[in-house]
Amino acid sequence: MLPKGEKRLVHNSLTSEAPHRFYIADMEAVRACGLVKRFDTRAAVDGVDLILATGEVRGLLGPNGAGKTTLLRMLFGLIAPDAGSARLFGRELDGLGSTALDAVGGFVEEPAFYPYLSGRANLALLARLDGATAEPRQIEDALERVDLARRAEDRVSGYSTGMRQRLGIAAALLRSPRLLLLDEPTSGLDPGGTRAVAALVRELAGQGVAVLLSSHQIGELEKVCDSYTVLREGHVVWDGTATELVAQAPASAYSLATSDDERALAIARESPGVRAGRSPRGELALAISDGGLDPFVLALGDARVVIRRLELLVSPLESMFFALTTNGAPLAELEPYELAETVLASV
């Protein structure tokens, strides 16, 4: 974040033209206040507040039915809230034709295309429907950035789910958006494709684009998000930065193999923030709170206990997600191996 009032010059990411817009680094891309949406008697979104700054990547988390997609639909102007308001870059959002949506790109749920057209033809048509004619080099650049250039002439009917997701991101990029709203953008992607999307999101954020994305692949969100909003049954149950989440999260879970497991267990019992035990298979399992891992590893080294394997099983985000969105037993009451099994079964 730049000092207040200082301007960041951002290039058009889809052309080779000189920079043509100034973004205010501390401008609010999204300010939603008290959003409510009911379907019959059920409140899918109930009093949600959300702020997203320029250049920020915010993860929107929650179990199925938490209200994530409904919230994104309201921010796209696809459905009207029953109460509350939303402003995009300071402009009141008042429906699908609102000028507040001029600099917004993205998709909700799985992006839809004409199956009998090629990926390239779909992008050109979507650009025209959006009121603009995309230059061929813009379309090529968008396809290359999502690794679809080699399949651009193939009909979309032959695309996998992951390829259609990537084509949806390419379509969003054609608008040179200042705000991206992405609903499960990594759904159907293999690990390599997921990492590529995460890298692209970070690149865009570095250029000043604000990104709000929902995902069930929690591990990937940890590598890309600056902040998180967690929903449960339509309510915000947690909101804050990635640093705050790690500090407040319950213990993470690890598996450990050493040259002297009994000595490692004894050292764990003497280490603040570390709980250790054996799984039913006899493997060492650890539950470690924030700040406890490094001193424990150093203590093992001082005792000449060789670490042969130390594997993260449950991350801070995963344990926090479980604690906030389930009614299970408190994580502190679980044995270390139970922590991993319980959390991983729910995320």
Q: How would you describe this structure to a colleague?
A:
The model is unreliable at 1-25 (pLDDT under 50). The protein is of the alpha/beta class. It has two domains: 7-103 and 176-246, P-loop containing nucleotide triphosphate hydrolases (Rossmann fold, 3-Layer(aba) Sandwich); 249-344, Alpha-Beta Plaits. The two termini are 32 Å apart. The chain contains eleven helices and 16 strands.
Features:
single chain, 347 residues, alpha/beta, Rossmann fold, Alpha-Beta Plaits, 2 domains, six-stranded mixed beta sheet, four-stranded antiparallel beta sheet, 28% strand, globular
Secondary-structure map:
Layout: E1 7-10, E2 21-24, E3 28-39, E4 42-53, E5 57-61, H1 68-75, E6 83-88, E7 91-92, E8 104-107, H2 119-129, H3 136-145, H4 161-173, E9 179-183, H5 191-206, E10 210-214, H6 218-222, E11 227-232, E12 235-241, H7 242-248, E13 252-258, H8 261-269, E14 274-278, E15 284-288, H9 293-302, E16 307-314, H10 316-325, H11 336-344
Parallel strand pairs: 5-10, 5-11, 8-9, 9-10
Antiparallel strand pairs: 1-2, 3-4, 3-6, 6-7, 11-12, 13-15, 13-16, 14-15
Q: CA-to-CA gap between the ends?
A: 32 Å
Which value, in Å, is the CA radius of gyration? 23 Å
Q: Tell me the domain tally.
A: 2
Which CATH architecture of the largest domain is right? Answer: 3-Layer(aba) Sandwich
Low-confidence stretches: 1-25
User: How many beta-strand elements?
Assistant: 16
User: What profile does the largest beta sheet have?
Assistant: 6 strands, mixed
Q: What coarse outline follows from CA principal-axis ratios? A: globular
Proportion of residues in extended strands: 25-35%
Q: Which series of helices and strands comes N to C?
A: EEEEEHEEEHHHEHEHEEHEHEEHEHH
Strand order of the largest sheet: 8-9-10-5-11-12
Helical coverage, percent range: 25-40%
The number of helical segments is 11
